[in-house]
Amino acid sequence: MDIQEAEAGAPPTPSMRREQFTFTGTGREYFGIWIVNILLTIVTLGIYSAWAKVRRNRYFYGNTRLAGASFDYHARPVQILIGRIVVLTILILYNLAATFFPVAGGILGVLFLLALPWLVMRGLRFSARMTSFRNVRFDFTGGYGGAFLAYILGGLLTWGSLGILAPIASQWMWRYTLDNLRYGDRPIDCDPRLEKLYGQFVMPAAVFVIGLVVVVVLGVSIFSLASGIGLDLEDFSSDFAVGGILLAIYGAFLPFFLLFVLVSLLYSAGARNVALSETVIDGQHLLASHIGRWRYAWIAISNFFATLFTLGLARPWAAVRMSRYLAGVTVLYSAGSLDDFFSTVKQSEGVVGSEYMDIEGLDFGF
Fold first, then answer.
1. What pTM, to 2 d.p., does this model score?
2. For residue 281, which of 146, 366, 181 has the smallest C-alpha distance?
3. Collapsed DSSP state (helix, strand, coil) of residue 193
């Protein structure tokens, strides 16, 4: 398989070696880490959250394995703490300005919106450079313009078109996020095709339209039934009437919100399949994603309700469950020996190694 075929997103040939991602962590193990992180974060008024994030990432990275090796996370808690203090200070100053000097607050709001792509760019760079596999670090070379296109204009395009142009925004975001990644000095190419993204858009759009019709019909039927039996809030006390109105409002918006969440999950899973399946490492190694969209939506939604109904105690189980599923549906197809590939990367990896110390701790989980 040549580089041109790989860059075109061609399917793997039978001669390519299949390497499965796996996640070996357990909910019981992570619960111990999670509960200590929560308690210490509360006791320290949030300061320990930076250490908590490092412990969490080291656990999840260390338990994500590929070809007999695991990933590593190298960030220092102090780096993340300083980055969070800087951002928190900016947010406090913005809120004070918005409260006491509305005009200045508006100006600062615009400036913060313009600064958001820079924060995204630095956050992605920090996360990449703090990640390694087989003692070789990743890097991120994306610039401000790409982040502005992917995260500001892309968001405006999606909401402004009521989701119809979401595949274009997805193409921009995935291309920016993955096409600017480097493994050592080796390029990672990602160019998800728009027709494939729209192919993943059709089913969620149909679910949304059908769900919208069902919700509206049910809403009208319930309202007609209430009117038919002569139910009138004026017959009740004012407090009860206000409570009934609020309950009706929330009851009306909840189905729309749940429908939006379901459709978003279905589409994001399909977009991930397209983007990863058109990602090529060093022109020869192919990634692939095979998420079952309904399965993914079920896991995400059931995780949420399990966490909600257990007052958060099921969160470790939910996080491990999702990580295990995502690893299990992600594959790397290698064109040759991975050992030979990794050894050549290690020989040239020092090209970008000197930059790792000169970075901010802006790690927001983008």
1. 0.83
2. 181
3. coil
